[in-house]
User: What shape does this take?
Amino acid sequence: MRTSSDREAELAALFQARFFERLRDDCDSGVIGAYERSPLGPHDDKTRRVVRGLGGASIAGKAIVISLGIDGPWGVGNIVIGEPGNFVRSPGIFLTYDDALRHVFSLRCRALFAAESRETDSQSHNG
Assistant: This one.
């Protein structure tokens, strides 16, 4: 028997799928170019939506910028639940905060589109 909790979960999954579909549609060359030019903004509405959407993704696996000194250099890593400190640092150093932000943005965009291909693969195997 189907419960209200089942329906809530179904609606949440549908909302999330539509949200990420729109986010992928919005994450076009114009948005990527605008972010590359000025990672800290100001950004137009579409670019802000994408940046907020990518930043609001699940914390597990998220790429983040870390400070390696008072005013840099900067590093990048991923939040990995269960690892010491729940963090795994990626190789590489960025001399500017903007460059580190650009790198994190590109990693988050790649993760967004990789998730789409995983969804497509699972749908084709289930269909």
User: Anything to note?
Assistant: Helices lie at 4-26, 29-37, 45-55, 97-126. The first strand starts at residue 63 and ends at 67. The chain is about 55% helix and 10% strand.
